[in-house]
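Question (not urgent): is this output format expected?
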Amino acid sequence: MSIERPFALHITWTCYGTWLPGDERGHVSNLVLPNGGFLPKMNVPGTTYAPGHCNTRQHAQKLMASAPMSLNLSTAHHAAEALVLAAQKRSWRIVRAAVMANHVHVVVMDCPNDGQLVRRVLKGCSQAALCHFIGENRRCWTAGGSDRYKNDWQAIENAVHYVANQEHKLAEIVDMVARRCTSRRGQAPQLVNNV
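Got this back:
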């Protein structure tokens, strides 16, 4: 009898316009130089974020197609519910997720081993649901995001704990149940392989 190796994805993306290239909190993007031209981004594992860069931030602001999107308690909870529905429809399992005003973390299991595909589905379904909810067709999420592959129980547990302990959560998902957050931090989760 073979024992299947555990697998999960820790996916992260940001709300549109809330963390632009050149942001003073740090960034991983090309630097736009004052005379035109640019310096390529340094997106190598272990490299620290680039510090704030005024020209790069101003350039990114000029390219924005719509106003920045920040979530509130209602829109965050609606996004969490849409993520659960998208996962249920595909028989995926969201073990833990945190929805903040400016970004989202999702730990998902029983999904394809294709982070870009899973992220596209989750972002697309929640984008459509949010636009319907707010009654406006607008951009909610930035392009791209982060896909981290977790291939053992310890790595999955670490991702779940990281997401569970996010500060300033407006909504969260705990084993496929979306709920509004009433405190800044969620309760410590149960062990993933015991769920």
